[in-house]
Amino acid sequence: MSELSEKKLKSLRENWEYLKKQNVNKANYICHGKNELPSKKKEIDQELIFESQLKKHVNKEQSEVAILNAFPLFLYEYFR
Predict the structure, then answer these.
(1) How far apart are CA 78 and CA 53, in angstroms?
(2) Which of 27, 40, 32 minimizes the C-alpha distance to 71?
(3) Are residues 14 and 63 in contact, defined by beta-carbon separation less than 8 angstroms?
(4) Mind listing the pLDDT tens digit for each residue in 36-47?
(5) Contact 80/72 with Cβ under 8 angstroms?
(6) What is the pLDDT of residue 57?
(7) pTM of the full predicted structure?
(8) CB burial class (10 A; 0-12, 13-18, 19+) of residue 62?
């Protein structure tokens, strides 16, 4: 397996940072109606995301649920 070039590694990090930001923004939107990064990590914990989905989507007549990718949320919660 070849080593990643510095440029390729930088690009990968930027892509993951972008995906993380998009998913965290979406989680904050689901929980608080704000499409932005939350000021505190606890504002979008898993229980609150679940409760917000249940309240705003599942119990309504609408047949929609927002999908979040768990891995970017994991990165957000456990790093920086």
Answers:
(1) 23
(2) 27
(3) no
(4) 999 998 999 989
(5) no
(6) 74
(7) 0.77
(8) exposed
